[in-house]
Amino acid sequence: MTGQTITTDIADGVMTLTLNRPDRLNAFTQAMLDDMLAALDQADADDAVRALIVTGAGRGFCAGVDLDAPDAFTAARVDPASTDPAVWAAPTNRDMGGILAMRLFNCLKPVIAAVNGPAVGIGATMQLPMDMRIASDKARFGFVFARRGIVPEAASAWFLPRLVGMSQALEWCYSGRVFDASEALRGGLVRSVHAPDALLDAAHAIAREIADNTAPVSIALTRQMMWRMAGADHPMQAHRIDSRAIAARSSSADAAEGVASFMEKRAPAFPEKVSRDMPGFFPWWAEPGWKEGETS
User: 10 φ, ψ to 5°?
Assistant: First the structure.
């Protein structure tokens, strides 16, 4: 798939999604949002895709919203004081970064950010709903919103403190300063730092470990269980859903293959597909009887 602002390539079970506006340091636009949403839909629907890697073309990852684009900043279309939930559910009233963040949150495949260069504003916040972040030693990060007179977007007030802790999240957002990959590593934002020419190899090694050894349906369930339980009020909520998942998966063909491959000391060949074999209770959070606050 080649969009107006991205390219994608699928090889050996891994989709590499490359932000492709190198002359603008891959600055973000509405067209890039649309292209990324389409690529994420494709990845979720394609059983050949076991993991995604997101990176940038050229020397940048994403330099934030393209301030020269006509849709960079627009006057409020509605009264910001409106308390009507339908107003803020409308896509035209939601921030672009938040739309992307929520689509990433709902992904069924693991997503790895390979941050090859500057990642500022939405270039930093779009990484937060991704599952792992690795960085080139040339990468730079910045939650620069307060320096532009705005506030963090892309649901980063939910994601960032969960990843790095409240104090670190507030320091980076209060100061709005740009910091290097070493500080991102110390602060827990990235998993590891690599030489530029080793970055994609490192990302592919992580993706291949997932693709070669794990059951796709188990990964899809695990991803949603982990992310959605990050905001649960009580561990009983996690206990309720993992009890259902264990009951469903224990009798699956994947579980039989997992045991057989272990006993026979061979690589597994899991038969079940995300496109057709998700358990009947998925998505459990959409069930009318699901009570987020229930603790017993």
Answer: -115, 120
